[in-house]
Amino acid sequence: MSRVAICTDSSALFAPGVAGRLGLTVVPIGIFLDGEAYGSADADAFYSRLSAGASATTSLPSPGVFLDAYRAAAARGAENVLSVHVDARVSATVASAELAARESEIPVTVVDSGTVSYGLGACVSAAAAAVSAGASPAEAAREAVQLGSTMKSIFVTASAPNGRVRAALGWAVLSFKDGLATPDTVYDSATTATEAMAARVLSDAGPRAAAVGHAASAVLPWADALAELLEGDPGTETVERYRVTPPVGAHTGPLSFGAFWWPHDPG
User: Which of 88, 97, 246, 249 is deepest in the core (most CB within 10 A)?
Assistant: First the structure.
């Protein structure tokens, strides 16, 4: 393995198989439904439970769990660990990793990505690419932080009986930047919310890269529509897709979808 191991947590929303391909260690966020641990990776089953009225909570990984991950990396031959996590302004995950780093037998660089969800995953991927190209832990950390500082996100949340889209009372659009989720406008339909989100993304000058994600399958048509609107603009160089899985969906709810975007540097 690489002499620099990379660790993150499951709020990075990596698709199945991606972490293994990149050689990452992903420490799980604890998921609870109605107070009981939820161990399934089935997002559709999770959102079905939420839509039926279950209450979801999460718990961050303990320092002990992080320390186990760092020790396992050392046992595999790593000489350093780069531990990249969700914005410290919205979660204590970074603090937990820092406590573990003090006890690690090999040096651990804990990185506050400054972003969340898919944005965190993008920062972790950037760090992994830098390490693969020969970067030091400090250099790879700078790559992650630099990308995180440029990330913007907009998303919609809605609540409706049994998760039925047509029963939604309103679609609230929020923007996430600089550690804050700021409410924007509540729209009367998912379609108008989609159009408003696309307009916000496209109001920033290109070239840009973007990513569109969705929680429950019920909102996939609007995520598709959002992606099409972004792809249709000449300033958008690329649009990736991702799934909002339980570590993030526990907070955004089942009827959530949205986009991340950042300046695209083809070089």
Answer: 97
Question: How is residue 175 written in tokens?
Answer: 């923007």
pLDDT at 163: 56
pLDDT at residue 267, rounded to an integer = 58
Same domain, 156 and 138: no
Helix spans in 57-189 (H):
63-75, 93-101, 117-132, 137-150
Task: Report the pLDDT value the prediction gives residue 64, as an integer from 0 to 100.
Answer: 97
d(CA 202, CA 261): 10
Output the pLDDT for position 141: 97
Which residue do the tokens 């050689």 mark?
23
Using CA atoms, how far apart are residues 121 and 77, in angstroms rounded to an integer? 24
The structure's pTM equals 0.93
Sign of CA dihedral 128, 86, 37, 65: positive
- Final residue in a domain of this structure, among 114, 148, 182: 148
3-state secondary structure of 175: strand
Domain termination residue (choose one: 128, 148, 168):
148
Structural domain containing residue 215? 151-263
User: Is 203 buried (19+), middle (13-18) or exposed (0-12) by CB count in 10 A?
Assistant: exposed
Same domain, 144 and 200: no
What is the tens place of the pLDDT at every residue in 226-263? 999 999 999 999 999 999 999 999 999 999 999 999 99
